[in-house]
Amino acid sequence: MFQSFFPKPKLLFLSALLWSAVAIVIWYTVGDDIGAALGFALAGPDAQPVVGLHYFWTPDFIWFYLYYVIFTGIFAAFWMRYSPHRWQNWSILGSIFIIFTTYFSVQVSVAINNWRRPFFDSVQTALDPDSSVTAGDLYALIIIFTQIAFVSMGIFVITRFFVSHYIFRWRTAMNDYYMSKWKRVRHIEGASQRVQEDTMRFASIMEGLGVSMIDAVMTLIAFLPLLWSLSGYVTELPVIGEVAGSLFWAALLWSIFGTVLLAFVGIKLPGLEFRNQRVEAAYRKELVYGEDDELRAQPPTVRELFANVRRNYFRLYFHYMYFNVARGFYIQADAIFAYILLIPTIAAGAITFGLLQQILTAFNQVSNSFQYLVNSWTTIVELMSIYKRLFAFEAAIDGIPLPDIDEEYLAGTAGRQPAQ
Question: 0.85 cut: is pTM over it?
Answer without folding.
Answer: no
